[in-house]
User: Fold these one by one.
Assistant:
Number 1:
Amino acid sequence: MKYKFNFAVAAAIAAVSGMFAGAVSAQDIDQGSVARGGKLYDKWYKVIKADVPEASHSLYPASNEKYANDPKNNWRCKECHGWDGRGVAGAYASGSHATGIKGIDALAGGDPAAVVAILTAPAHGYGDKMAEADLMDLANFVVYGQIDWSTYVDADTKAPKGDAAKGKQVYNTVCANCHGADGKLPKDMPPLGSLMGNPWEVMHKILNGQPAEAMPAMRAIDHQVSADVMTYLTMLPKE
């Protein structure tokens, strides 16, 4: 019995070890790759300086008349799956961006290679649009970059769940140099305070940066800091 018991214990340990052999710890995730993937999810063609596809994406539904004939938008990942990654179950369940397409949340924590396979399959058609490294960054965002939005945003009120006083300190040291103390810079974009009707987009850009711009990504920092910044943004001028 003694030897059988020891063998059983060893077998159990081996089984558990096998379960986690392919797991990736948080400290092993390349946050730079994830953040770049977030920018690709936002507007991939600007990140890689590519031309916008001439034809609309084949999977984009004709039922959305606003964007069905707009390749500049309907080739963006966020346009189908939403800034929150939840698609029809999230913020894009209704409104001008509604498509009825499911989200990417089921792919969180999965295998990046499987996501690349989806992206390069004929249906999605990104195989000839992005290089292998770009596809892997995008896949890393899908697998490792999704967050629990309910922790940071109230879905019903769209109010960020942060501390405005803490957010002000971060904003004034990290953001104000480019956006101004009142959030009205650069002049070619709307005031930051006016953007808080879409906290999912704002937090996505705080975490990952803005495509083709020098905006830093705060992904490697505690995400609550980004929620604090958003809470402060709600206090800035909207006009």
Number 2:
Amino acid sequence: MEIQNVKALLIEGVQGGIKPNEVSSLALAYIGDAIYEIFVRTLVLSKGNAPVNKLHKQSKEYVNAKGQAEMYKVIAECFTEEEKAVFRRGRNAKSYTTPKNMDIADYRHATGLEALFGYLYLKGDMKRAIELFEKGVSAL
């Protein structure tokens, strides 16, 4: 793929080039994982410069199934009907792997949350994604 195509998709992806309703739940979670990671890394870095291994360690507190499941529990009451439906699609998606030593319910809630962030990104509603993230982080 040429860089121009990637550039166009990044711009159009948040402006209707990729229709989030036509993307599979696990693909939404795939892109949503990256969006969530960017939010967390930005938050961690905003707390002050530090060696990368310390930044990574701080990020891991948020970027794991347990942390994401806890965030879901905090922000679920704020979901619109549309967001609830997207979350359920992600949560109920059949994943082909489950990480070891992890609660399956936490894993599914994390997948649902990632799908929601992916959906909001592709829909072009980063304001809403940030709003939900901030509410969740402030309560953790």
